[in-house]
Every structure is written in structure tokens, then in C-alpha cells.
Amino acid sequence: MSDNRELDPHTRRRIRWTVAVLVATALGFYVWTIVRQMNS
Amino acid sequence: MKLVKKQLAASLGGLPFGLLLAANPALADLQLNMPRGVTDISREVYGLHMLITWICVAIGVVVFGAILYSIIKFRKSKGAVPAQFHHSTTVEIVWTVIPMLILIGMAVPATTVLVDMYDTSKSDLTIKITGYQWKWGYEYLDEGVSFFSTLSQEDNYARQLNSGRNVAEVENYLLNVDEPVVVPVGKKIRFLLTSNDVIHAWWVPALGWKKDAIPGFINEAWTRINEPGTYRGQCAELCGRDHAFMPVVVKAVSEQEYQEWLQQKKAAAGAAAQPVQAGPSQQGVASAPATAPSAAGTSAGESGASQQQAEAAPAQAAALSMDELMAQGQKVYQAQCQSCHQAGGEGLPPAFKPIKGSPIATGPVAGHLEIVLKGKPGTGMMSFAHLSDQDLAAVITYERNAFGNNVGDMVQPADVKAAR
Amino acid sequence: MTATTHDAHHEGPPSSFLQRWLFTTNHKDIGTLYLVFSLAMFFVGGLMALVIRAELFQPGMQLVDPYFFNQMTTNHALVMIFGAVMPAFTGLANWMIPIMIGAPDMALPRMNNWSFWLLPFAFAILLSTMLMPGGALAGGWTMYPPLMLQHGMALPFAIFAVHLMGISSIMGAINVVATILNMRAPGMTLMKMPLFVWAWLITAYLLIATMPVLAGAITMLLTDAFFGTHFFNAAGGGDPVMYQHIFWFFGHPEVYIMILPAFGIISAIIPTFSRKPLFGYSSMVYATASIAFLSFIVWAHHMFTVGMPLSGELFFMYATMLIAVPTGVKVFNWIATMWRGSLTFETPMLFAVGFVVLFTIGGFSGLMLAISPADFQYHDTYFVVAHFHYVLVTGAVYSIIAAAYFWLPKWTGHMYDERLGKLHFWLSTIFVNVLFFPQHFLGLAGMPRRIPDYSTQFADWNAVSTIGAFGFGFAQLIFLWVVIKCVRGGAKASDQVWEGAHGLEWTLSSPPPYHSFNEPPAIPAGESSPR
User: Fold this and answer.
1) FRET pair for A20, CA 20 to 30 Å: which of B270, B319, B402, C88?
2) pTM: predicted TM-score of the whole model, two decimal places
């Protein structure tokens, strides 16, 4: 079964970084949407 | 071959469209185009619309022509051998720059018209428009005239599910009101728009614009109508169940007729005497002459009604019989309450509570009066304090005794007046 | 979730049905799940549309209560957007991206499974609101307050359902980016990727930026309704118009989310059936990126009548008009691809050419809508309804159907029935125009949108449109039959399937092995862009 076990460690680290940045981006947009409303 | 014919049909769709637009047929039922309208702005907007349409048709002819040509000329079945080119910087630049120039060509007149539409200065009169679920309120600031404008009773009846009425027989179906907005021709009229509950939008195509009516905000717009006539429009922002049933009717008349109409309105307002309240958080709005369920909003009917209003004022204290209350109450119910609470009083829970068997309608009169006069904030039940004492007395009596409620009591106009 | 007992060399799918479909981490199976789900939702949304058009067949109210009608319009849109179009594109992404870039699977296969299975759960909740007291949401899919706050039980459930759909999309998008950026076969540079992959890479960024904004907006709706906040309540110091700004900040990129993958699909199909490379590959990439960037700064063209200051109104008008430029570039490039090619018109090509013609018509009405003073007459009328249905039905949906015909032989190993496919195309195309073209006229004549009943002067075109709706709806049953028939059997498909097909996906067998590209393939050197 293809899963991350078959990818080399370098690629897996890069994938983790990509995911971390994108999750932070998504959360950031969510929080910003609400918080900017609270200060007005 | 079949393919070619069909593609021809598809891509030629644009051409007859363009040609027919130019012809602007008088066939109202198969109307293809926007009306030119009766204001300078509406004509400018129409001009912009036609300009962009023709530009799109022209581009369409070129683009669809190229596709059609390719489909016919470069078919493998005709022996076409594929070329291998796949880029050309020159061509790319050309077909980026030319569209940009076309866009600039469109943007310039559009900007001019928009700037013009935003200039509400130097107006001759101001009318405040308030959107309600589901009617419009109009207030002539500086004149002290205000009233509600609701879908006419005949239309309201015909549009009910399984009403049995053939709507084709109702003239201007869904575009009739009991009280139109009367304005003078040739004068610059400024509108202030707001709403009492949810977002609505006020639109009369013949005037050339629409504007949202937003609770807690005041929007501005203006118009100057060049030709006398009756112009009809509708609410243009989804506002709940009866969004389709709150039309706008504007009657443009000569200055003299307008002044006469104003005088009539002021006289009637004097008889019913209470100042108009403004703002979305206020519930009670009074002083409008009764939106009594007369058959249609003809001017003869209107002046008749306002005369009755003026005469009825001193007679308001007189008591009415149960039969009179029930008869009038049923008419008021049909015009004002039925669209939500339904013909049999069963409502549409949970949004629209039933009146049949309702604790309010079968409980103390004070509570029943309160909810009808004040409405219930946060729900679709608005205040009906703008109706006359007599109409309110009648409809409350009706509600308490119809639908099997049979409470047995009567509410008199004097009771309503005392409760305000 | 524990790894299964498969070892790395196991060839085929798991034998147990539940194991295979409920617990799959295989991009091909997940792609199939998305596509099947989306087809089912397409019919659900389509039924709602038929209720709408049936009521609108004649003036007067014949069939439904106006409030129920509003529930239909609202949920028709929610189902089609979040249940049919977006999952279909995601299904295509899952199936095709790994095999187009020579990767063994998506970067995060287990999250991939979750992304899919959230959807049936979310839609069960959304559709169940129709059975709740008070019915489903009826304030439009745009959910504007204060109207939206007049709702009963459906509101929190629907908001929860939309949150789940959003999370599914965001996770899917993260997976797409992580896969494309990190798992391309050596030698597959970014500028050698098929345009479908580029389109999805860019779309994924749009999703990650904007779905959270939608989530924020509906969270605030929820707290306004139940927790005493007044973000959007003027009486409490809030602003209902601010909701519109936030919603459309999501909403406009959302429509590009629904069309960029379509552009990618058409860019795969037209070169194949023209037997000629895509014209202007790099321009196509830059145009797609420009469209995505511009999509963030045009949102208020959905709000031209709200009472914005003049400068704002002008800015949004100019920015919106600008998007026509890169979009036009793409259309010209597709035509240039066909020009002096050697064309055949199998069903995928029919739908692709149909897309180019009909999407362009939708583009024209879009350009007209961009002109703010003219928009005052078009806004909230059937002119807008006509516009977005041209770009979404003859645009996005046509591209999805084209992709299905294009790739079904690869997925199943069988050729689909070409005669039935062509019949599906012609019936769809004739009826879709009968359905939507008259709606331009209705809007221009003055018919507002979201109304269950209308003045009698609108009767004739409404009747025509309804006939088109039923014709178009029934024509889609042909497609259902074609798909079922193809899955079950048909003429054997070769690896390449189509004479003009080029790309890594066409080097695999039809159907491809359950696990493909366990070893990265060799990318042919030399050409700077794919054919």
C-alpha cells in the first residue's frame, strides 16, 4: 500500500513543512476574519 | 456535416440575439431587452448596455467565427495535417493589448454615468423609503406625509396557492399596490433608503437604477422623471417568504396634480394625527391613512377613502357590531395577515405561528393587542400600528372568533386607541 | 489509523468491500468515491432545480409554498456548488494529479480519506434540514444576515455542515499543494507539468486562503444567532454589509476555484483531439495565476447596489473588467491550438469545444455585469442567473463531463459508448441553451431573482426555460447510463486511448495498476513544456 512509509525522509520532511505552513495560513485567515471584526 | 450545422446553430445564437435587440420589438411577452426608461440616467444606462452588448457581439463574431472555421477547415476527416507551432509572442501581445484598449473604451463612459448617478445634490424634494417584510413605507420629509404601500388585495388573493384565480386576468399582476408613490415630473427627487428588518432593495427599471435598503443604514439615490406615467418595479433583494410580493409603483404627475395629492394626504394625516417615527429599532409607526382593504388603488378610491378617514375620525368612538367587526376583520386579515398566518389560521410553524388555537388569540385581549400593535422583534411579526383603530379592532376580533377560536369577545376601535 | 497488513509489493486492492472503500488511502479509489458522490449530488441538486422550474413554468403559484421555494433555491445552490462541482474537481485531482506527475500517491493519503468521508456526513446533515420543523435554510446560499437570523433549527445544522465541507476542501487543497510541490518525478519541472496540474496547484492556494474566511463569516452568523454577539446587527453596533464583504471575499475566489480546474481540463483535451501541442503554454500558466490573483480584489462587484462610496465602486469595476484580459488570452490560446490542427470530434472534444463557445457567452454577460452603472439594472435579476449558469453549467459542469469521457477509458479499461456520448452532448447542448439563454431576456425585461411567482409579461420566456430544464435534466440520465455501462464493460481501451494523447498518464495501462509509479518514471528531456 502506498503511503508515506515509502517516501524518503527528505521528502517526508518537506511535506511536513508544506503542511505546517498551509495549515497555519488557513487558521490565520480564519482567526483574522473574526478578530478584525471584533476590533471595529 | 451534422456537426457543422449544429455548431453553426450554436454559434449563431449570438447574432439573432443582437439583431433582435436592435429591433426592440413591441412584443411585451417575448421582450428581449432592457427598457429605455423615462429618465436621463435610464437612457444613459441603456446606452451603456447597448454599447457593451454590441462590443460583445462583435468579439463573439470573431471568436466563434474562428472556431467555426477551424471546425470546418481543419478536420482530420478532410485530410488536415496538424501544424506543430505552439507559441508566438507577437500574437500573444496583440491579443492582450487589444482587449485592454476595448476595456478602457468601455470604462470611460461607464465612469461618467456612475459619477452622475452619485450626485444627489440640489434635489427638489426628498422621500424616505423604508423596506419592511413585506411592504414599503414612504415618508415625504418636509411635507409630513407618510404611508405604506402594500401589494394590492386582489393580487395578494390571486397569488395564493390554489387560489382558483386566473392570474392572467389580473392587470399588472403582482405589480399593483394600494398606495403608489406620487411624484412630480421634471423635478430632482432624492431618495433615502433604509429598512426596518432585513435587507431589501428598491427597484423601478424605468428609472434606471436599484439600491439596497439596509437596516441601520441610510442609502441615497436620486431620479428626475421626464414623462408622466405609472412605473412599476419590485423588491430586488431576497427578504424572506414574500420577497416576490412587495412591488413598487411610482406615479409621475404634473406639478399641479402632485400638489393636489399632497394636500389630500396632509388633510388625511391631520385626521389620524400621530407623528411618524423613524429608525429600525422603533416599532410603532402611525399616522398613515388606513391601508383599508379597498378593491384597487384608483385615485377615485383613494380620495374616497381619505374623505371617509377625515369623516370617520370623530366617529371613531362609535361601537361596531360583531357582524361588522367580523366582516371587516376578515378583509383586513386577508390583506394583512393571511400571507403568513394562512387562510385557515394555521400558520407555518415555527416561523409563522398559528392563530388557530393560539394562546395569544384565545387569551387576554391586552396581550393580543400588544403583539399586533408592537410586533415581535427578531421575528417576521412586524408592528401593525399603522393600521387604523377600526381595522385593528376588526382584525383582532376576527382572529379571536374565527378558526374555531370562538372566544366570543369583541374589540372596539376605542380599545385599540387606548392601547396605543 | 493503523497501517494494514499489506506489504509494499501488494499489487491489487483489498478484498473486503469495507476495507477497500471505507478505509482506502489510494488516490484512485478516493478519486472514484468523490466522482460517484458528486454525480449523486448533481442529481439531487438537479431535482431541486426541477422543482424551481416547475413552479416557474406559469405565473401564479401552482405547486409549492413560497417559503419552500426559497428553500429549494438556497439548497440547489449549496448542493451544486459544494456537493457536485467542487467534489467532482477534487475527484479528478485525486485520480489524475499523481499519475500526471509520476508520483505513487497523494502526499497525505490518510488525510485524503478523511477529506472525502467528511462529505457524505456533511450532506446528510444539510439535506436532513429539509425535514426539520421550519424547513431548510431559505435565505439564499449567500446566507445574508439579518434575514439568515430569522431561521429556525436549520441554521446551526446547516452552518455545521458547511464548516465540514470547508474543512474537507481545505484538507484536500493542502494535500494537492504538498503533493505537487514535493512529489514530482525527477525531471518534471514546474513548467513541464500538464496544465491541469498547474490549474489545481493555483486553485488549491485559493481554497486555503478563502474557505477559512467563509468559515469565519458563518461562525459569526452562528454567534450572532445564538451567543448574543452583534457582528452583523446594526442595532448592536455591527454591520450587515460587512458580512457581504467577508462572504464575497470568499465568494469571488470561490467561483474561480470552480473554473480554473475546468480550464486545466480543456487544456488537456483540445490539444489531444487537435493533434497539436497546446498553444502558448507559459502564457496559459501566467494567465491562470493572474486570474487567481485578480480574483482576490474584485469581490465587491457582487455588491454594487449596496451603497459603496464612489471610489470603491469605480475600483471594483475596473478590477473586474481587467479579469477579462487573461481569460480572453486563454480562450484565444485554445482556438490557436485548434487552428491548423487535425481535428476529430469524439465526445470529449465535443464537450470541450462546447465549453469554449458557451463559457465565452457566460464571459460576455460577466463583462456586462462588471459595468457598475449598468449592473444597477442587472443586479439581482435573471440576467445574473443566466450569467452564472452559463459559466457554471456550460462551463464547469461541461468540463467535468468532458473529463469523464476523456478519462473513463483510462480509469476503467473500457471505451464508453461513443454514440450515446454524442447523443448526450447534443441533447444537453440544445436544451441547456433553451433553458438559460431566455433568462438573459427575463433579467433585462425586469424579472428579479429568487422569486416563486412573477408578473405575466415574463410568462413566455419562463415557460421556454422550464421546457429546457426538463430536457436538460433528462438528458443527464443518458450520461448516467453511459458511465454505468462503461464501468461494466466495453471495447478494450489501449494505454494511449486517444491518438493525440501525450503525458505520463497515457503511459500507464488502462486501467492503471492499483499502485502506479512506485518507482518514479523517467521524464523525457528536451522539450521545455508538455505537448
Assistant:
1) C88
2) 0.86
